[in-house]
């Protein structure tokens, strides 16, 4: 049952002809009032399909809201808290990509969607954790500059013969870096459980898992699996969603402290304020947006094949 504030937001949303998009790492109370939830790929695709709404409230980190703005230049994209930044996205400025392109002039540039707009403008194509292997395999080039997450780059390299060059060296998600070999002891404690981890986790953690999946992949896998117990190695509110959607299954966080602090900056109060005052508007320089849009759209096109 929704609380009074959640109902106020739903009413405001209708009055403003708005849609609320939320990443899987948002808290449960935000998940409950979102019109659409998903991983980065699903949110990109949804953002590209918005036609009949005047406002888009994006409950995620900055690069996600920027992507929605890039794909919807004629719509007002709002983010409830402007401090909701992705530390990993900030690890790869556009200047570093340009330097890498000079060193490897024959390489394709594949950037994780977890990058800022100025970086996306330097990419040939984007990818997410859900489609990274498919995107890389779709390219003609034998050498690929891939950034900013080194663990996703390592994961992709396991499934392709192409040379994957990570940029920058050491790019990572601090949340997924929290997972350690202690996950092995959870397997002993829950012998019937399947371990699902995100490809941003370190390679040794990926090797301990039964499946390496994006958050969207986890949603589908848990829903369709005949198994009843799952250990989830990603941000803890992924567990919140999985438990709500699979009440008859046991969903166990691999690490309860795996919290993305900037994702949690969004609150119901800030979402209400965002709708009420139509703030804060996400703006992307037009030239940068035009360059980045082709890389985003190319990713979506390949993903749908």
What does this 3D model show about the protein?
It is a single chain. This protein has 14 helices and twelve strands. It has helices at 4-15, 28-31, 40-49, 62-71, 94-103, 117-120, 132-137, 150-157, 183-189, 203-208, 215-224, 237-245, 268-277, 286-303, and strands spanning 18-23, 36-38, 55-59, 76-78, 108-112, 125-127, 143-147, 163-166, 194-197, 211-212, 229-233, 250-253. It has a four-stranded parallel sheet, with helices on both faces. A four-stranded parallel sheet has the order 6-5-7-8, with helices on both faces. A four-stranded parallel sheet has the order 10-9-11-12, sandwiched between helices. α1 (4-15) packs parallel to α13, α3 (40-49) packs parallel to α4 and α11 runs parallel beside α12. It is globular and about 55 Å long. The chain starts with a helix and ends with a helix. The model has no long low-confidence stretch (mean pLDDT 96).
The end-to-end distance, rounded to whole angstroms, is: 39 Å
Our Rg estimate from Cα atoms comes to: 19 Å
Named at the architecture level, the CATH assignment of the largest domain is 3-Layer(aba) Sandwich
Structural class: alpha/beta
**Basic shape:** globular
Short structural description:
The protein is an alpha/beta fold and 305 residues long.
Which terms would index this structure?
305 residues, alpha/beta, Rossmann fold, four-stranded parallel beta sheet, 12 strands
Layout of secondary structure:
Blueprint: H1 4-15, E1 18-23, H2 28-31, E2 36-38, H3 40-49, E3 55-59, H4 62-71, E4 76-78, H5 94-103, E5 108-112, H6 117-120, E6 125-127, H7 132-137, E7 143-147, H8 150-157, E8 163-166, H9 183-189, E9 194-197, H10 203-208, E10 211-212, H11 215-224, E11 229-233, H12 237-245, E12 250-253, H13 268-277, H14 286-303
Parallel strand pairs: 1-2, 1-3, 3-4, 5-6, 5-7, 7-8, 9-10, 9-11, 11-12
Helix pairs in contact: 1-13, 3-4, 4-14, 11-12
């Amino acid at each position: 049952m929704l609380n009074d504030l959640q109902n106020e937001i739903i009413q405001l949303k209708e009055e403003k002809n708005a849609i609320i998009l939320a990443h899987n790492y948002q808290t449960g109370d935000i998940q409950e009032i979102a019109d659409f939830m998903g991983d980065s790929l699903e949110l990109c695709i949804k953002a590209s399909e918005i036609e009949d709404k005047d406002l888009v409230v994006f409950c995620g980190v900055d690069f996600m809201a920027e992507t929605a703005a890039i794909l919807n230049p004629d719509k007002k994209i709002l983010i409830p808290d402007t401090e909701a930044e992705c530390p990993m996205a900030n690890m790869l400025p556009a200047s570093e990509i340009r330097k890498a392109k000079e060193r490897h002039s024959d390489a394709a540039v594949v950037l994780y969607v977890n990058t800022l707009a100025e970086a996306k403008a330097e990419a040939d194509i984007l990818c997410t954790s859900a489609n990274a292997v498919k995107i890389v395999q779709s390219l003609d080039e034998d050498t690929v500059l891939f950034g900013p997450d080194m663990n996703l780059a390592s994961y992709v390299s396991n499934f392709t013969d192409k040379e994957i060059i990570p940029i920058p060296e050491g790019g990572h998600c601090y949340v997924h870096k929290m997972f350690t070999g202690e996950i092995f002891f959870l397997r002993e404690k829950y012998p019937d459980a399947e371990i699902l981890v995100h490809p941003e986790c370190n390679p040794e953690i990926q090797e301990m898992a039964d499946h390496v999946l994006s958050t969207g992949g986890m949603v589908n896998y848990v829903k369709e699996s005949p198994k009843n117990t799952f250990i989830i190695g990603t941000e803890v509110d992924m567990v919140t969603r999985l438990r709500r959607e699979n009440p008859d299954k046991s969903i166990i966080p691999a690490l309860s402290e795996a919290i993305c602090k900037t994702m949690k900056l969004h609150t119901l109060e800030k979402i209400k304020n965002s709708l009420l005052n139509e703030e804060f508007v996400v703006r992307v320089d037009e030239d940068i947006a035009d360059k980045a849009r082709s890389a985003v759209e190319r990713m979506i096109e390949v993903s749908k094949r």
